[in-house]
Each structure stands twice: as C-alpha cells, then as structure tokens.
Amino acid sequence: MSLAVEPGTPAPPAGWDPEDEEFWARSGARIARRNLVFSVLSEHIGFSVWSLWSVLVLFLGPEYHIDTAGKFTLTALPTALGALLRLPYTFAVARFGGRTWTVVSALLLLVPTALAALVLEPGVPYGTLLAVACSWPGSSPCSCSAGSATARRTR
To answer: Are residues 40 and 98 in contact, defined by beta-carbon separation less than 8 angstroms?
Structure first.
C-alpha cells in the first residue's frame, strides 16, 4: 500500500502499513496500542483540566464580586474558544504527527492550570480571570483522537 504525503508534513514511519497482517502482528499492534494509551491518557487529562475550570468558577465566592452572568461568561468562554480552535488543532495532528501533537497539547494544559493557581485569589480583577479563561484548552481533548492510526479490521 502506498501512502501519499504532502510536502512539509511528517511521513508515516517507514513501512507503516496497518492493513498488512504480518506487519501488524510483528510490530504495528504494539505501536498502535502504545499510541492509543497515550492518546486516551491525554484526552482524560484534557477533559479533566477543562472540567476543572468550570468547578473553580462555580466555587468563586462572594469575595470575588462576580455575578451569575459573569460566572457564565467565565465558563462559556473556554468552550467557545475550543470550538473555534478545534479545526486548527486537528490540522496540527497532520502537521506535527499524532504522537508529537498529543504530547504538546497535553503539556499546553500546564499553562492554564498554572495561571489559575497563580491568580485565583479574592480581589483578582475580572479581566484577569477572562484572560485565564481564554487560555483554557477547550479544544485540546478533541484533537488527540484525530491522529489515531489502526487497522480498519480492528476498529
């Protein structure tokens, strides 16, 4: 089977043919399983971090001086941005490779988590919370599975 690859995109590993039963039994299944495990773990972390922001906003007490509409905005913003970023995140899988992008996008989850830990104190300006909400990765979990390559017969 011949795999056509556009210039500038990483090629699949040499000899990668998940439909070849001999290749699949020799090394393909092991590689695909490892990639699947990393993908599932990254998606789990992504959804956990994404959900964490909603819980943090829910428990912002009266000392933060944020009304219900403001809390709604803080929780809706990551979802709206995630919807917009889902497409470029998916293209990033093709550009950088599934495993590489899964690791990079999982590491990017450290940014909003660290920002929230640093700024989430009573009296923090609402604009700062909006900026932290904008850094929250609403699209990260959705992109991980776009690069999964397994044999069609095993799906």
So the answer is: no
State pLDDT tens for residues 42-59. 888 878 887 888 898 989
- Asked whether residue 126 is assigned to any structural domain, the reply reads yes
Contacts 24+ apart (CB under 8 A), 81-87: 81/134, 81/136, 81/138, 81/139, 82/50, 82/136, 82/137, 82/138, 82/139, 82/140, 82/142, 83/138, 83/139, 84/139, 85/137, 85/138, 85/139, 86/139, 86/142, 86/143
| Whole-model pTM over 0.90 | no
Domain count, the chain: 1
Domain that includes residue 110, residue range: 21-154
User: For residue 88, what is the domain's CATH number?
Assistant: 1.20.1250.20
What would the pLDDT profile of 53-80 be if each residue is shown by its tens digit? 889 898 999 999 999 999 999 988 888 8
**Type of residue numbered 129:** L
